[in-house]
Amino acid sequence: MGIAHGQGYTQAMDLIALAVPFFLLSIAIEWSWGRWCGRDTYRLTDAVSSLTLGGLSQARRFVTLGVGGAVYAWLASVTPFTTWTSEGWQAWLIAFVLYDLCYYCSHRVGHEVKLFWAAHVVHHQSEDYNLSTALRQTSSGFLFGWIFYTPLFVIGVPAEMMVTVGALNLIYQFWVHTEHVGELGWFEYVFVSPSNHRVHHARNTCYLDRNYGGVFIVWDRLFGSYQCELSSEPCVYGITKPLRSWSPLEAWLHVYRDMASDMWRTHSWSDRLRVPFSHPSWQPSDLLAKKESITGEPFEKYDPQVSRARKMSGTFNLILITLLLVAAQNSQLLRGYELFAWGMMLWLGVANAALLNNYDSAWFRVQELVKSLVLFVLATQLSAASAILIIPLSLAGTLWQWFERETEEVGATS
Ligand SMILES: [Zn+2]
Ligand SMILES: [Zn+2]
Q: Measured on CA atoms in the order 200, 205, 209, 213, is the torsion positive or negative?
């Protein structure tokens, strides 16, 4: 069972790794299309933040052991049901549909219970809606997310089938994150579509906590959580308590932190215990007076204006993060150093967030230098080809310092 699970896991990883070039190409096409037709739905800062979180979410597997895997293996060994054969399409179809039902439950709880929302919130922080938003995924879903899929193991779905339908489910969800596709007629009744998933990402009051399906929207229609997109109510994207940061650490932790803070500050013990299991909008009654307005309009996107030099460096840093992920996933060179690769990706991500937030200080510039040196050493240790790729990229990631300084000097003398 352990081996079967391991093989299934690798297959699914391969499916997602195979899809990465397709994802990136689609993002380039959507961006070009938007520019061409005068409806660009991308902001570089937001897309860099989303893609960094997506990369870190994939790399997260290097640093945590799945609790879920062990529980699944145990369940499959004690269940009275025999494991299904993975031959024939019928079993695959049933597994695919049942997986989506489990996804619906997991996703619904992910929006309606604070402890689960704290993980899923990452997917919803973007205030833009485009294909890069699809890749914006949490890194803490592994903590509790597996609970919702345990019934599949009890009824005998083999691990490799489970992991493969899970990957297909995730890949399907990619294309619906776009503003360029309108309503699709009959399709809206059966499947998750760009239109009904836009509703899911909107912070408008009438759209909150709607449309949880992954592939099939039928579950929402059955269980009363469906809402169609209304022409009178254009979607405003993001969460009701905006993140207002590009930092992956802030993105990961802000709801956990608010939860801990509420549990600490309230004077009621029953409220203290209720916090993690309450609806994300709920707060202990003695803290309500201090509550910030949650859907205050008009809503302004978080959009610090950054120089062209910072945008260029930010893009190079993102390429570096992506290369580290691809190398750690596919190359023998980083075998055994995956944890280090994850740490490096996180360092690049956090520093890049500060860069795109117009942060500057002497120590930040020293940190940029140290980061380049570490990358330089890493590149030379790996291979000549890695050095040729990594060293120029790491230097390009710090070029903003020189270009900005020049601009400032020009500005000061003119
Ligand atoms: Zn969601
Ligand atoms: Zn989504």
A: negative
Ligand 2 centroid – CA 173 distance (Å): 7
- % pLDDT > 70, the chain: 91
* Residue 202 structure tokens: 């909107």
* Predicted model pTM: 0.90
Mean pLDDT, all residues of the chain: 88
Q: Which two tokens stand for residue 257?
A: 């932190």
> b/e per residue, 207-244, with b = 16+ CB within 10 A?
bbebbbbbbbbbbbeeeebbbebeeeeebbbbbbbbbe
Residue 163 pLDDT class (50, 70, 90 cuts): confident
Whole-number Å distance, alpha carbon 123 to ligand 1 midpoint, is 7
Closest ligand by atom to 50 CA:
2
Q: How far apart are CA 188 and CA 196, in angstroms?
A: 7
- Cα 10 to Cα 15: distance, rounded to the nearest angstrom: 9
Q: Say how far apart CA 326 and CA 391 lie, in whole Å.
A: 17
C-beta separation of 339 from 59 below 8 A: no
Cα(152)–Cα(33) distance, integer angstroms = 41
Determine which helix (DSSP H) or strand (DSSP E) holds 44, and give its type and residue range: helix 44-59
How many CB atoms are closer than 10 A to CB 382? 17
Contact (CB, 8 A) for 76 and 83: yes
Instruction: List residues bridging with 237 in a β-sheet.
Output: 202
